[in-house]
Amino acid sequence: MNISIVGTGYVGLVSGACLAETGAVVNCIDTNQSKIDSLNNGVMPIYEPGLEDLVKRNVQKERLFFKTKLAEVVNESDAIFIAVGTPPDEDGSADLKYVLAVAREIGSNLDNYTVVVTKSTVPVGTAVKVKAAIQGELDKRGVKVEFDVASNPEFLKEGNAVDDFLKPDRIVIGVESETAEKVLKRLYKPFVLNNHPIIVMDITSSEMTKYVANAMLATKISFINEVANLCEIVGADINLVRKGIGSDTRIGYKFLYPGVGYGGSCFPKDVQALIKTAKNYNYSLNILQAVEDANDFQKTVLFNKIYTHFEGNLKGKTIAIWGLSFKPETDDMREAPSLVLINSLLENGVTVNAYDPIAMHETKRILGDKIKYCKDMYETLIGADALAVVTEWSEFRLPNFKVMDKLMNDKVIFDGRNIFDMDQLEDFNFHYYSIGKKPINF
Predict the structure, then answer these.
(1) pLDDT(438) > 90
(2) DSSP β-bridge partners for residue 2
(3) For residue 382, what are the CA distances in angstroms to 159, 353, 379?
(4) Measured at the alpha carbon of residue 244, what is the angle toward residues 243 and 250, in degrees to the nearest 5?
């Protein structure tokens, strides 16, 4: 099959490389010439485990191509996936200008049947607008060409996206014709040989499914964070509470780990967009509004602990930060809790020493030289009055506490991800603050 994917961001690039891995010929299109040049030279615009090898292998096999001209590939494509950005407007709604621009360009060049698939996360009703935009351009040209519009939301986890695509737990497609269904089922057949389902539904339900999935996961995160905060107040241990409720199969353990709030490109944007969609229909999603409010508060929790411990006397202090990206195995800094903490610390006259295995270049693009970027996690501790763990990278889990003891001015740890056990710390007399437990002062 011949596939075109418009947009070489996170979703488009992963999708293109994984589809090419099955033998499809894939053209990835982007108007950013420098990005296309970099990709053709094997330089990845994002960090994602396994992606670079996948891209290079399929480029070498001449199954994966990077181009800037959509018009050149429209009429050789069995399906065209729209995977461009849908950034939030000021009111929280998804901005569809890039999606509709692609639709118009398809309509301006379409001469043969194809299936136009929205892969970007888009609100309910987008497929109708895409179809109208394509048809409008065909009408301007005075031509009649059959085409279908479909919805195929992605469910990729950053840091595990390649495996998620190659071994999906489900594939959702929204269609309005048998022809479009056959095209997409043929395309995805290699990914469901392990009996994971292709779930076929109407387009409106497909568009809704993506938002609801992310909103449900965000809800679990905000819920457990709220409970963790209450546990601290009443003297309960959130880690034990989590085990107690997670053993119930109706609840499960996933997304029940307390922390400093969710970030990234999906959860914040999608929760806001779903709230806005409801408002457009004169309905209020009160639970989701509470989810968003709780997450905004949770991003301040670690700073509040630091401020309270030092009794507000932060000016001149040095705080080490381990982890900058919003989650491990990615360099994504969008809506990262670390940024909220860092900005609060800087506003209070604190010197920040930071280390992240992957995301420091992206952090520097955002913050510039406002903080010190260290070569490893121990360099951050030199002269530090406290350590704040913000992202739970694996290399932070078993540090050398003897070295930490020698490097730090004051032995205080603010563990925003609960990665340390108390028995690791008691021999070194660290003050230890976590999420959902009373602080421990040895």
Answers:
(1) no
(2) 25
(3) 30, 9, 6
(4) 95
Task: Give the HSE-up count for residue 235: Cα atoms under 13 Å, Cβ half-sphere.
Answer: 0
**Are the beta carbons of 70 and 105 closer than 8 angstroms?**
yes
Return d(Cα 243, Cα 224) in angstroms, integer.
12
Residue 262 CB contacts under 8 Å (≥ 6 apart), including other chains: 218, 221, 222, 268, 295, 326, 335
- Among residues 18, 28, 231, 266, the one annotated as catalytic is 266
pLDDT beyond 70 at 442: no
In order of 94, 96, 268, the CA distances from 88 in angstroms are: 5, 9, 10
Tens digits of per-residue pLDDT, 119-138? 988 888 999 999 999 999 99
pTM score, whole prediction? 0.89
Give 174-178's long-range contacts (Cβ < 8 A, gap of 24+): 174/127, 174/150, 174/200, 174/201, 174/202, 174/203, 174/204, 174/205, 174/206, 174/207, 175/148, 175/150, 175/151, 175/200, 175/202, 175/203, 176/148, 176/149, 176/150, 176/202, 176/203, 177/148
* pLDDT tens-digit readout, 273-286: 999 999 999 999 99
Measured between alpha carbons, how far is 329 from 160 in angstroms, rounded to an integer? Answer: 8
Question: DSSP string covering 18-37, please?
Answer: HHHHTT-EEEEE-S-HHHHH
- DSSP-H helix ranges across 189-336: 203-234, 238-246, 267-280, 286-298, 301-309
Paired tokens of 68: 């800037």
* Helix, strand counts (H, E) of the chain: 16, 15
CA-to-CA distance for 432 and 440, rounded, in angstroms?
Answer: 5
Respond yes or no: is residue 231 known to be catalytic.
no
pLDDT band at 82 (very low <50, low <70, confident <90, very high): very high
Both structure tokens of 112? 């043969």
Domains of the chain in start order, with CATH, are: 2-201 (3.40.50.720), 211-297 (1.10.1040.10), 299-441 (3.40.50.720)
pLDDT tens-digit map of 13-41: 999 999 999 999 999 999 999 999 999 98
